[in-house]
Design a protein that fits this description.
The chain has about 350 residues and is an all-alpha fold. The mean pLDDT is about 90. The longest helix has 25 residues, at about 45-70. The radius of gyration is 22 Å and the shape is globular. It has helices at about 20-40, 45-70, 80-90, 95-110, 125-135, 170-175, 185-195, 200-205, 215-230, 235-255, 260-265, 270-280, 290-310, 315-335. The protein contains 14 helices and no strands. It has 2 domains: about 20-140 and about 145-185, no CATH class; about 185-335, no CATH class.
């Protein structure tokens, strides 16, 4: 009687039948409520922007596939996620042609240039966002009010700006659409006017912000879905949000008149969506147990430093991009200790 065969394999030992397509489909599913809420708040202009940016990312992905002589990678869903995330970080009335440029740069410069999915060093959506922030600084800081009465019957005038033309000034249009509209984000009002936005406005989404940044509660719930399905490392957003809140608390203790409370720091700007959906990118974040905590703390603290002492009102984008750049070094310096061996920093 022959003995049963024993099969030996080296790590990693796959326990779940997961593929890129399945993971990406769940991320898209988690982002859809945030996108739907953005459309509900800002209407047709937000919907057109989301569709345009996603289409730009998909077309650029296909173009890069053809130029590189490789099979189409559109089915893996990564370009769709890049487009969706990128659109949610842009102002709702951002000109569509500029949104298409952002999508092109996100895929071409942030992904294809490095060799495609799995080889990119930086988060592609944030690469596209950083490019248009540098290229179109006026358009990317032009805001429109949420819940405008005619948002489902008319587009914001800047939406259909022709390529290479300067978008029209919409301040008068925005004030006429919503009485009392200031045209400033909560972070800008705090930084330049020392005015704090009510937490009730954050909870209802009645604030001026990028398309996907207005409802922190909804973003957290969608991120918790991914964490429960183990499609993101929960330690990263916890580290980002906790370190940002702790930093804000320390500064408020030092000067409560100048610095806002931790709740404002967490709810305002793009901190929550950045922590939940961008800092957790599997390709551009560390993988070691200690490394993910250091990475998250770095992003949270740097975000607050940029907000408090930088010329920009928001610092999440640059903090995550710097964190992405440091991720390989963090992994190298924080390897798990092999049984029977000292830690890396204790070796002679």
């Amino acid at each position: 009687m022959s003995s049963p065969l024993t099969e030996l394999r080296t790590a990693p030992h796959v326990k779940r039948n997961l593929g890129v397509e399945r993971i990406m489909s769940h991320v898209v599913l988690a982002l859809l409520p945030i996108a739907a809420f953005a459309v509900w708040q800002y209407g047709l202009s937000a919907l057109a922007l989301i569709i345009t940016v996603i289409a730009s990312c998909l077309l650029t992905e296909r173009l890069c596939n053809r130029l590189g002589g490789v099979a189409s990678t559109l089915s893996d869903g990564s370009a769709t996620i890049t487009g969706l995330l990128l659109a949610l970080t842009l102002p709702p009335a951002f000109p569509l042609w500029m949104g298409a440029v952002a999508g092109f740069m996100a895929i071409a410069l942030g992904k294809a240039l490095f060799g495609g999915l799995g080889f990119n060093v930086l988060n592609p959506a944030l690469v596209g966002r950083a490019f248009v922030q540098a290229a179109f600084p006026a358009a990317i800081t032009s805001w429109v009010p949420a819940y405008a009465p005619e948002r489902f019957s008319a587009f914001v005038p800047t939406t259909w700006t022709l390529p290479f033309m300067t978008p029209p000034d919409i301040s008068a249009w925005a004030k006429a659409a919503v009485d009392g509209f200031t045209g400033a984000t909560p972070l800008a009002r705090w930084k330049f006017e020392n005015v704090l936005t009510s937490p009730i406005d954050f909870l209802s989404g009645a604030v001026t912000a990028s398309a996907g940044e207005t409802s922190a509660i909804l973003i957290l719930l969608c991120g918790l879905y991914l964490a429960a399905r183990r499609f993101l490392d929960w330690r990263i957003p916890v580290a980002v949000l906790a370190s940002a809140a702790l930093t804000a608390w320390i500064f408020q203790l030092m000067d409560p008149v100048r610095y806002p409370d931790p709740l404002f720091a967490l709810l305002s700007g793009g901190l929550v969506i950045g922590a939940m959906f961008m800092a957790t990118d599997m390709v551009t974040s560390p993988v070691t147990p200690l490394g993910v905590w250091l990475y998250g703390v770095f992003i949270g603290v740097l975000t607050m430093m940029i907000r408090y002492f930088g010329g920009l009102t928001e610092g999440v984008m640059y903090a995550i991009l710097f964190g992405n750049a440091l991720a390989p070094l963090i992994d190298r310096l924080t390897p798990p200790r092999v049984f029977g061996h000292p830690r890396l920093w204790s070796r002679s």
